[in-house]
Structures are given as structure tokens and as C-alpha cells.
Amino acid sequence: MRTGLDWQRVQALVAAERASYITRNPESARLAGQAAQHLLFGVPMHWMNDWSTPFPLTVRDASGARFRDADDHEYIDFCLGDTGAMFGHAPLAVATAIARQSARGYTAMLPSEDAGPVAAELARRFGLPYWQFALSASDANRFVLRWLRAATGRSKVLVFNGCYHGTVDDVFVDLVGGVPMQRDSLLGQVHTLTDHTVVVEFNDLPALEAALKQGDIACVLAEPVMTNIGMVLPQPGYWEAAQQLIKRHGALLVIDETHTISSGMGGYARAHGMTPDALVVGKPIGGGIPCAVYGFTEEVAHRVEHAKRSAPPGHSGIGTTLSANMFAMAAMRANLKQVMTEAAYQHMFALASQLADGLRASIARHQLPWCVTQVGARTEFQFSAAAPRNGSEAGAIMDSELEQAIHLYLLNRGLLITPFHNMLLVCPATTDADVSALVIAFDAVLRELV
């Protein structure tokens, strides 16, 4: 038995579902073979091969909570670009804004008329007065680390074991048997990351305090809820105490809300009374257009401005030519004002709760030792009876073979969930019927497996 299941039944299900997928998708198979002639690994990005499918599914078009593949099958999308399309595919307001902007220019290395209003709206939502822009959360996190190291005169950053902050080099450090180590999977890394990155377990206040006491931590970079290793919630009182420790020891707190923006209009930090020194939001902020934002408190903004003005002239290592381009700014303005609304969030919260309740009921019906966690519009089922408390616990209960079996079964029935773990998102276009369809299919795959 493995995670409460008969493993022979899991393997038999996978074999049957792979055969079904191959039969159902001849055009995606043809296109995958054609693409392999010129695409490295046969896909535009190598991780597109990491789905549960025998070959990549080719998307033809996407709108709202649905997309259609090259074989003309329609899917209800609970992955939503792993949060990139958290507010639905091609939201009408964003589509209209970028269509209008497409005839007015894309990039000019100068502010557009949308820049000021976007920054003002970000300040209103998140409570931080000063903002800058990037093309991805990876870049935004990278830039924030540079700014805060310069502003504090300290070289080290602290992250949590099992964290995810995009492709920022500094964060690819894990605890292995309690020892900080560079991730083995990191390709081409030549500098020793542990020289300037400190890693501790999430929810471990003594470990956090011991690291901060050294006096060389510029900032703590954290998601308020860990999400990419499966969701790990903060224990009651954790962030209140952690913020006090960070401040007491002269470090700064950076909150990455790229996934936890699912918590509400001002993200998890605003919803739970946190007061970060800096904040990053990536993927969903422009409705799927590549862009990201990062903001500072007034005090930290003055410190980073002073650091820049005190430095010799030349490239700061911060910013790219296309950052804050006119196209992205138009998309962000429309998305913030017309799509990421309170009404949209309330709709999403209600459906996510309905989904979480349905998953829990199914898990209980089949007497499986699994749990379900919800953060706003984001829901996750995990293969343990109790929710994990840190990255080590979350990593220990992940089971990629079982995940892929469930994911492939759902996909063959027109339901897409996020690869790599068991995350499900709802968007403003998701309906009660969509949620019911997923819960019914989830119950069916459990019935097949138990």
C-alpha cells in the first residue's frame, strides 16, 4: 500500500489512461513530432515535458475558464497557467486594452500614460507607496534583492526550505538533513550559493531568530504561504512573531504574493495584517501578459533611492529594456481596474470553498489519509492526513507518480489541474457546474484507485 492505495491499481490506471490519451489526440501527437525537429526537448520550454501526458497537448485557443486543443477537445481549466491566468484566459477588459494599445506602440523606454495610474492603484491595494516594474516575478525578486542589499549594506538573504521565487539564483538552497545545500537540479551554477543565502524551515521561529542574530541578513524573502511544494500554511501567530524578529535584528521582509494574490485584492499580507517592507507580484497582475511589480514602504524607498544616488554612474544591474513597456502597462491598468475586482474575488472564494468541500467529502468517502488546503481562490489536496508544517514535511509527502495518474485521468475527461503538484484555481469565469464536474471526476478516479 502507498498513500492508502493499491499500487498495482495505480499503475494499471496509468497504462489505460496513457493509451486513451494517445488515441484521443492524434493532431497533438503530429504537432509534437513536427516541433521536435527544431525545438530543444521538443517543446518551447523544457518543463513543458513534465506533464503527465505521453506527448505535449497543443492548445489552440483559450477563453475564460476553458481552452480548446488541436484535436478540438474542450477543457475546463483549473490550472490557469499556474496562476498566470488566474483571472481567466483573455479577460475582455485586458483584450480590449491591448488591442487598443497594439495600434499605439509597444515599447519606448519612456513612461506611458498608464504608468502613474497603475502605480497609484497598486499603492491603494497593497498599502506600499512606491513601485517599480519588471517582466516577471523572477526579475522582480532579483531586483528587490539587489536594492535591499545595497540599501542595508548586508550581503545575505534568508529563504525558507522548499521555497519558490522563480529563477532567482539565490533561492535554490535547501536543507538536506538539516544542512544547507545547493539544489542538485540547478544547472550551470558556478558560484557557491550558500555563501550568501541562509535557509531555515518555515514555521520554525527559533531557527529564524538564530539566523537573524548573526546580523548579516539583508532581507527575508518569503511567500506568506508556501505554495510550490504543496501549500504550507503559517502556524497561528507565526508571522506576527517572525515580523518582530526580522525588525528587531535590522533585516527587511519581502513578501512574494505571486501565488497568494489568490487571497484577495491586496494579497495575503493585506488580508492578514502583515506589514512587509517590500512586496512582489508577478504572473497574474497583467492578465497573462508578461509583467511583474514590486513595491516599497516609504522608508525603504528612501533608502534604495539613496543607495542609487550614492553609487557611481553606470548600469545598476536592475531593470531591463522592456520593463514597464506600454503594452504591459495597458494590460495591468485594465486588469487591476476591471478584472481583479472585489466581486470577482468573492465569486472565486465561494467556488474555491465549494471545491475544497467537495474534495474533502470524496477523500473521506474513500477513507484516504489525505488533506485539503485552501487559500482564497487556490485549493490543494495533499497526500497526508495532516497538513504539512514546513518544506521538509511537504516534500516528503509528494508522490509524482500518483499525482500524474490523477492528473492524466482528469485530463482525459476534459479537466486540467496544475502539474508538479495538486493545485487547483478557479477564476471569475468558473461556474458551479465546472466545480461539480471536477469533484465528480475526482471521486471517480479515487473509486478506480481504492
What topology does this entry show?
Layout: H1 7-24, H2 26-35, E1 59-63, E2 66-69, E3 74-77, H3 92-102, H4 115-126, E4 130-134, H5 137-152, E5 156-160, E6 173-176, E7 179-182, E8 197-200, H6 205-212, E9 217-222, H7 238-248, E10 252-256, H8 267-271, E11 278-281, E12 292-296, H9 298-310, H10 326-339, H11 342-365, E13 371-375, E14 378-382, H12 391-396, H13 400-411, E15 415-416, E16 423-425, H14 432-449
Parallel strand pairs: 3-15, 5-8, 5-9, 9-10, 10-11
Antiparallel strand pairs: 1-2, 2-3, 4-12, 6-7, 11-12, 13-14, 14-16
Helix pairs in contact: 1-13, 3-10, 4-10, 5-9, 6-7, 11-14
Corresponding CATH architecture of the largest domain: 3-Layer(aba) Sandwich
Biggest sheet overview: 7 strands, mixed
Distance between the termini: 10 Å
The assembly state of the depicted protein chains is single chain
Would you state the CATH class of the largest domain? Alpha Beta
| Annotation field: number of helices | 14
Task: State which percent range the strand residues make up.
Answer: 15-25%
CATH fourth-tier homologous superfamily of the largest domain: Type I PLP-dependent aspartate aminotransferase-like (Major domain)
Helical content (DSSP H or I, runs of 4+) = 25-40%
CATH fold annotation of the largest domain: Aspartate Aminotransferase, domain 2
